[in-house]
Amino acid sequence: xxxxxxxxxxxxxxxxxxxxxxxxxxxxxxxxxxxxxxxxxxxxxxxxxxxxxxxxxxxxxxxxxxxxxxxxxxxxxxxxxxxxxxxxxxxxxxxxxxxxxxxxxxxxxxxxxxxxxxxxxxxxxxxxxxxxxxxxxxxxxxxxxxxxxxxxxxxxxxxxxxxxxxxxxxxxxxxxxxxxxxxxxxxxxxxxxxxxxxxxxxxxxxxxxxxxxxxxxxxxxxxxxxxxxxxxxxxxxxxxxxxxxxxxxxxxxxxxxxxxxxxxxxxxxxxxxxxxxxxxxxxxxxxxxxxxxxxxxxxxxxxxxxxxxxxxxxxxxxxxxxxxxxxxxxxxxxxxxxxxxxxxxxxxxxxxxxxxx
Length: 357
Hints:
The chain is α+β, with helices and mostly antiparallel strands. It has one domain: Glycosyltransferase, CATH 1.50.10. The chain has 13 helices and 12 strands. It has helices spanning 13-26, 43-55, 59-72, 96-113, 116-134, 159-178, 184-199, 215-223, 229-238, 240-243, 261-273, 277-285, 315-329, and strands spanning 82-84, 87-90, 93-95, 146-148, 153-154, 244-245, 249-251, 258-260, 300-302, 307-308, 342-347, 350-355. The strands form 4 sheets. Strands 6-7-8-9-10 form a 5-stranded antiparallel beta sheet. Strands 3-4-5 form a 3-stranded antiparallel beta sheet. The protein starts with 12 loop residues before the first helix and ends with a strand.
């Protein structure tokens, strides 16, 4: 199927119900959500899938997903790069943006559900996770992308990973204000990270080839709210023709003939953040040709060889489809999480929500 054009207030509930059911069908009794049946689980994509479940109204399943993360959290607040059940599948590193993303997921759940008791339950998990992540911030503002098995930082930073952390720090701050546990250093760390992302390109990709050929390095600073709307529009315009294939989607890498559904969904939300609603609707309309009969979506399409590649239908791709649909239709109270920056400020009369451009 193709040509699904979404409008505000018209969430395609019946059409996307099988996509929600696909994620549910892959979720294990423990709450863990692997990439697909029999696959491994990583903390970031697990969280993306949990957000999809919440958008689909499966709040208890989403709670179980976050409680699985709480159970698997290491004493220092981190998680291994991937798991199979309760065993680490990749115990060689722990990635900072994977760890930080729990704050984004938990804040998304609270905004959507209003469940303050669950937010209180998850607060210690978020607090420990952000403490781990900020222990990896350098004096220049960027955050090391990972630590090795011994806990030693891998001395470099990623634009995409740090942009994701930037959004997670916004969400973590809002959780701390809502829970009345002030963490003023979190906003300061976010400010320093934003300065590094905007003005210190030399602090990224120092020990490997530049990752600027990846589309996520192009649009993630927009998606995460690092840039003003004017800067966001200019950034997306600057490389649009390199990354976007009309009628297909967003390339994963500029020099490879491969469009991917999840990156295309994230681009949709970045376009909304940049104020380009019309183009966001158009890009999203292209993606349903990669949908299968059970509501899942293939990872992507290789244009030259005319084949689906890899032959995988990840839960996190389904989660991204649901997040983008919610953002376009403003279906839930959490729909603007990635299209708007919001910072809560505590005062004597309670919490005041401030929109920050």
